[in-house]
Amino acid sequence: MDAKRITLFAGHYGSGKTNIAVNFALHLAEQGKQVTLADMDIVNPYYRAKDSADEMEKAGVKMIASAYANSNVDVPALPQEMYSVTEDKSRYAVLDVGGDDRGALALGRYAPEILKENNYHMIYVFNASRPLSRTAEAALEIMKEIEMAGGVPFTAIVNNTNLGKETTWETVTASMAEAEKLSQISGLPLLFTAVNESVLPIKERENEQYFPLKLQKTIW
Known about the structure:
This protein is an alpha/beta fold. Helix content is 31%, strand content 19%. The chain has a single domain, classed as 3-Layer(aba) Sandwich (Rossmann fold). Helix 6 packs across helix 8 (176-186).
């Protein structure tokens, strides 16, 4: 896909948006772009983009996250440096938005500048394996709630249906019809299907329909 200057990933808790955000930031860095990865998730302390801070540093990706990320301190605050995402237009920015509408509330303070620049992708991460978003209709309701809370309309969808380490190629292919349905009823394009690289068949690795993922390491 053609990257916008700002790419936001949002979705239901457990959708895998953090893992996609990390992989996408690395993907942009591999293309020679100056990239900032912003961890905006102030709700879920268990799966954080900051878990990949060392890998980001090696790849030349700048990381912005709460000073309390990866700690047991629950402080719903984002650092002042987060404003550089909208202010520094020389860098590509990838934002990991908090899960559901509650997590997306933090996006509201940055929404006016994101909309003003109008060079963004707001991407909904669909995971048909999650209990509350198994259907396109349920996922669409979550999308509407996130949009209302964060103030930034979705522009596209990615399919990230998985069962963690139990994911098989059949898990992925079985979700395709529901992902296409979500695209149809939302009126938004399905950009790609994200697949753990160990699951993606070799014959499909050059297929732009799929985005191979390395699973994020966590400290938990």
